[in-house]
């Protein structure tokens, strides 16, 4: 465990982010480095993809050539570096975990998501809205099981669970993943995707390599749920169905060799690009660490979000059993 107080210098400004061989590097453990990079990756991928959400690959090519800058805009008319619900729901969930002594609990998560919805977020998914309204009425934090609620809304916000559950057993981690997911998405396909993402992030934070993670997690998911098979045709223009989302993410992630190439690949597929960007960014951050994140993206990211991601990554690691 690392004391939060020792992290003050690298958290203040992007120019003071730890650099390879730099003075600040020594106080960032490899675990913390990858956790921070995963959270920043989530936000950067969200902001990058939001500019091209709901566009087709052809429309993106026509407008941008290759979309590779945090430029804002898109159908939500975002400012440069602004994020969407993917990142802000993750931060709301992370805060609820921290206020709950590092434990992931359904009721605390539901209350946090409800407060998040009341604050009028820039974007909100249909399944999230419907089931949070049901929670307001019933006070019961678990949505009814539904074969239709297999959107990517639970998967996109799952990162704080991966960090808070480091060092816990597989059964404890799965219970935590489902507690947060079922607030809005009570669906076996969604659960399997969420669990796979959490274990992939934890594997990379522990130093696993691509090949291990590919077989142990991604191919294993496709074995359990054949719909998830991703070594088929290229998944372009992915919808909000979590299977489409993870197929696009896995193709981009396992077929590239850097944080930047992974994110550029996935968002230029268009479709639900903020969420594919967010999930790919989370994985690529955990895989490549802080040194892999292009400085121009880090500097363009909304500073409040950047600070929030860094703070939460450190605090959630601190609250886990690492
Ligand atoms: Mg979004």
Polypeptide structure, described:
This protein is an all-alpha fold and 322 residues long. The chain contains 15 helices and no strands. The protein has a single domain, classed as ADP-ribosylglycohydrolase fold. Helix 5 packs across helix 6 (126-138) and helix 11 (242-254) runs antiparallel to helix 12 (259-267). The chain is globular, with a radius of gyration of 18 Å. The structure holds magnesium ion. Magnesium ion is lined by residues 84-86, 123, 274-275.
Pick out its properties.
mainly alpha; 322 residues; ADP-ribosylglycohydrolase fold; binds magnesium ion
Q: In terms of topology, how is this protein built?
A:
Layout: H1 8-12, H2 30-50, H3 57-64, H4 85-98, H5 106-118, H6 126-138, H7 159-164, H8 170-181, H9 188-205, H10 210-224, H11 242-254, H12 259-267, H13 273-288, H14 295-300, H15 303-319
Residues 84-86, 123, 274-275 line the site of magnesium ion.
